[in-house]
Design brief:
Helix content is about 30%, strand content about 20%. The protein is of the alpha+beta class. It has a single domain, classed as Nuclear Transport Factor 2, Chain: A (Roll). The protein is globular, with a radius of gyration of 16 Å. Keywords: Signal. It comes from Oharaeibacter diazotrophicus. This is DUF3828 domain-containing protein.
């Protein structure tokens, strides 16, 4: 295992120990492992420590980490791939990383996962990270900006699953489900 993935495993192990009593963190940690595989080590095509492709919507994650609602929205949105595909194939509806929020970025730093409040069966899990430090042309405030993603976790069929993700640090209405629904509504 490359040493950066080993570092992620240690990071997640420490996070897991701190919040072991919070099952809502488990599906988020799987997505964080993809974030780290994509951005943490500069190794495109990497896999997560458990061998899952570094794709937020790989079949193993889509059917095991996300709610049925998000999985259905993704499958509909995938009918409108961001890039050309052959025949009637589906593909990623995103031409950017929807979770980290960009096409360009630096290795993730100060990555943290913390369980939040539970209200009406929905638990917020907050993920924070820095991903602009390597851009020397940016001012210090931009380089040190802490990005925040709020994962909304629910229980489906006895398992904790991600039912949405707030994707904007300042706009709680900018969610993964909203973006997927907008793409799915595009004309064919």
């Amino acid at each position: 295992m490359p040493k950066t993935l080993a570092a992620l495993a240690l990071l997640l192990a420490g996070t897991a120990a701190a919040v072991a009593a919070t099952p809502a963190v488990a599906p988020v940690e799987k997505i964080v492992a993809v974030m780290y595989a994509n951005w943490g080590n500069g190794d495109p095509g990497a896999t997560t420590p458990d061998g899952v492709d570094a794709d937020y919507f790989a079949p193993a994650l889509l059917d095991g980490v996300y709610s049925a609602r998000i999985a259905a929205l993704y499958r509909e949105a995938a009918k409108h791939p961001a890039f050309d595909v052959e025949d009637d194939a589906t593909g990623s509806p995103f031409d950017y990383d929807p979770i980290v929020g960009g096409q360009d970025g630096c290795p993730l730093e100060d990555l943290k996962v913390a369980p939040g409040a539970t209200t009406a069966g929905r638990t917020e899990v907050v993920v924070t990270f820095k991903n602009m430090r390597c851009f020397e042309g940016n001012d210090a405030a931009t380089r040190e900006h802490v990005s925040r993603r709020v994962f909304v976790v629910v229980t489906e069929n006895g398992h904790a699953v991600v039912d949405d993700v707030v994707l904007d640090d300042t706009d709680a209405s900018d969610t993964l489900s909203k973006r997927l629904a907008e793409i799915a509504a595009l004309p064919q």
